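Onboarding guide, step 5: your first structure request.
Type a short instruction followed by the sequence, for example:

Predict the 3D structure of this protein.
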Amino acid sequence: MTPPPDGGAWRDGDDPESALTGLVRDATVRIHRPGPGCGPDAEGHDGVFLGSGFFVAPGWVLTCAHVATEGRGHRVDVVFRTAGGESVRVGGTVRAALPERRPDHGGWPPPDLALVQLLRPVEHPCVYVSERPTGLRRGTYYFAGWADGGAGPPRRLGRECRVVGTLDDGDEDDAQVLIEASQLYPGMSGGPLVDLARGEVVGVLKSRATDTAGGTAIGVERLRALPVPERAVEAEPDDLYQAVFHAHDRYHADRHNSPVDDRDTWVDVQRDLGAVAGPALTPQQRVDLLGRLATLPPPVSTRGLLDILGSLGHTHRAFGVPAPRGWRDGLGVLHDTREGDEALERILRYCVAAATAERPYVLPSTKPAEDALWDWVEKVAGGLRRPFRGELARLRERDAHHRAPAADPDPAPVRPPAPALVALHLEARAWEPDRYDWRVVARPHDEDLPVAENHRGTRLDELPARLAAPLGKAFRMCDEPGGPAVLQVVAGPDLLDLEVDRWELPGDGRPLGVQRPVVVHCPEPDPDDSSAYGTDEEYEAYEAERTARWDRVHTGPARAAVLDCDDGLRVPLPPTAELRGLEHRTVPVLCRYGGRDDARGPEWFARLLAAGYGVALWRRPRDERAATCAEFHLRVVDTVDGAGGAAQLPQRVRALREGVREGRVDTYWSDGIALVYGPPRPPAPDLFLQAP
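The system replies with C-alpha cells like these:
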C-alpha cells in the first residue's frame, strides 16, 4: 500500500486501507515549542518543531514524553490541518508524562508517553485507540507523523512498517518494540502506529534508529500506568486515564451513530477491512457498547474489575501488559474468548456486572446510563437461548428493585431570595434595524435604580465600548465581596445569540460571563395584548402555570429535557399543549438552536414562554461545531439535575465559562451555552430615565 502524497486526496480510492490512512493522517498533529509571531498559517517556521502526536479524544493529544516536555514550562503548541487544508494552531499543556522527567543520564526510558490538553475548544478528528490488552505483535503496521523538513516546513508522511520483536526478546515486560521501516525521519516521534488488519491505533512511535532503517514504538496499553488518584474519585476528571478514554469512546460512538454526518468513521473502515471487534461483536456493536460503558462511572478499583473478569473465567496475567483499569479494558480482555453464543453471553454478563457495579460516585446521568446499557443488553440478547434471556430479565427486575429511588415529595413552594441584579435592556429600532436603544438599571436589593440609557441608536459592534462605563457603575452599586451581581440581558428573540458574556470591560481583561453570572431574559408578550394569550381566563391560566413552574423548578430538583434534538437530528419543538404537559420541574434544553438567522428560533422561544417556562438553557450556534452532540446531552443533564434547583444554574453556567477560559477539557462541551433565567417580570420600564 502506498499512501497518497501529502496534501493530496485521501479517500479517492475505493480500498478501505486508503480510507484508513486518511483517517490516521487527518488526526496526526505536530508539536511545537511556543514562539512569538507564529500564526496559524506560519507552518511553525519561527516556533521550534519538537515532534508529532495525534488526537485521542476531544481536546487531548497523545505524544512522547521526550517530545512534549521540550516545550516551555509544560506548554506546547499543537498544529493540525482541517478537512479544508487550513492550518490551525492551539496552545496545549502537558497534563501527564511517563516518566515525569528525563533521567540525568541516557535517553528517555519507556514508556515515554505524554498527554497534552488543549487550552481552548476546537473541532478536530480523533483516532480509534485499541482496547485490546495484547500489545504489539509481529506483523505489518502503518505509521504516520510529521518529518523535519530542515530548511523547509515539516512534511506529513505515512508508511508501512513491520514489528519484528521487542528491544530485548527475552524480556516480555519490556514496553518497547522494534520496527523495521524506511523513511522514518526526525520529528516523527509521537506519531501513531496502526494495526492495518483491525483498523485501530495500537502504539506510538518512540525513536528512530541511527544505524538501521527502523526504530522503536510503545504500545498504547502502557497508558494504564498513569497514576491512580490517591484520593477517592468523585468525578470523571479526577482520574486522567478514565477521563481521556471515556471521552474517546463517547466521541466514536457519537460520530458513528450520528445520522447527520456522512463522513467515513473508523467503524465504517473497520467493517470494510473485514475486521472483527471480537468473536462475538461486530465493529458497530463494539463501538456502541463502548460508548454506553463510557457514560458510566468507572470501576471502583482495578481489583474490583479483575474480580468481575475472574467471575467470568478470566485470570489476568501480571506480566506482559498492565492490568485493566476501565470498563473498555475489561471488554478488551473478553475479545479472545471462544466464538459462538457462549462468547456473546459472557460479554453480556460483563455488561450486567458493569450496570450493577458499585460506583465511586453517582451523577444525575448515571441512572439513565445504566438503563441504556440494560436496553442494549436485552436487544443484543434477543437471538440467544430462552433460559439466558429469562436470566437477564430476572437480573434486571432485581436491579430495578434494588435501585428504586425513594419517593420525591413535592416540596412546598419557597421563593429563593432575589440576588443583586444589573439589568441591560436592548431594544431594536424599527426604522434602523441595525441599531439598538439601551437602558441599564441596578437592583442592589429590591429597589430598581436607573443608571443610564441611550435612545439615539447604537450599532451592535459599538455596544461593548458604549456600555462599559454604565455597566461598571452598576456593578459597583450592586457587587458584594465574593458575591458579584447577576447581569441580566433583556432582549428580544432576535438577540438571544448576542454573546454579552464574552464582552470585556476595560482594565479587567476577563469576559463578563467569567466574572459574574450572565443570563438572558426574553420578554413575554404584553399582557394587555389580547391576541397574545386569548381571553382573560386563558391569560390567568398562563400566569398560574408560569408561577407554578417557577416555584417548582426553584425548589428543585430540576430536570433537564432536550426538546429539539433526537440522536443528533434536529426535530421540531413540541406544540404548546405538549410542553405544558411536562413536569413543572422541567428545564427545557435546546441543542439545535439556529440563531438569529433561523426563523424557527424566535418561534420556539415564544412557544416556551407561552407554555409557562421561566428557565431554559440552550447553546448558541457555532460554524465549526460538529454535528454530533451526545456529550452535550450527557453533561447538560449532570449540570441541570445536579444543581438541585434553578437558583443555582446561573452560578453553574458561570463556573463552566470559567472552566472553558482556563482550558479545562471537561468543560469544553459547554462552549456557547446560554441561560434564560429571570423573575416573572423584568424591571418595570417606567422606572428608567426619560430620553433627553
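Each response can be followed by summary notes, for example: Residues 639 and 652 are 7 Å apart (CA to CA).
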